[in-house]
# Entry
Amino acid sequence: MTARMAFIGVTTGQSSIMRVFPVWARLLGLDAELTGVDLPLDAAPDVYRRALVRLRDDPSCAGALVTTHKIAVFEAARDLFDELDDFASTCGEISSIAFRDGDGGRRHVRGAAKDPVTAGLSLEEVLAPDHFRSGGQALCLGAGGAGTAIAWYLSGRADLTGPMTFVDVVPERLDHLRAVVRGHAPDAEVRTLLAQEVDLAALLDQMPPRSLVVNATGLGKDRPGSPLPDGAVLPPRSVVWELNYRGSLEFLEQARAQETERDLTVVDGWRYFIHGWTQVIADVFGLDMTPGTVRRLSEAAREVTS
# Structure
């Protein structure tokens, strides 16, 4: 029987993974297909619960990757999981769901949060181990699941001694992020700001060279636009990371317009996409995802999407 893996998102049919997954399945020796499950932003808790139960009760479904709804799935359906990894329990989000046969015909449901690992793998490809040593800081626009995972990773970097700043439109997300970092790295300096109350252009002007600026808002992907105002100037010699790899990508355009003049390293979300999917596929199907395997899968994905 062909195994199914679900993709829980907002507009899954537009994602490159729908073309990439069949190629990956062949390379990995999997008899598997990917099925999109589109749920609206800010859906009611019962919507997430019904979706999870439907997948759990489908014997052909091996698991699922969750994108935009990571925190919502955790909050709405935590009691439906038999097991959660440390990241999921601490960060309050679920990005990977794996089903296993259990006792009495009941399927065991395991939830994991892969974003902290994915964020770390992605950032370590563009940040030198001493990137922040000269005083650079971190500014992340967005404090949802991805922003929280980035906070988790950055709070463990020895070279980052200055404050990490997170901006979001929802105060509860900022509260949650602070609680997660406090439990993981109590000594980390975290500053949280409401987007409605901050002048982002002025905030960027105050940031030192060799900082990190991240767009983790979803703007430019799920909805058009950028969290940065027109004319905002990015700190020199900084790494500027747009988590998205598809969409209108206005933030990425703003960064690339300053790339040469400000000596920026501008990165889109492609590697984040690759690491995110390969980590969850390994979890769902019980695979050993080595760096060499990830490299081959990335090359194959580029061929499919170019």
About this structure: The chain has a mean pLDDT of 93. The first strand starts at residue 3 and ends at 9.
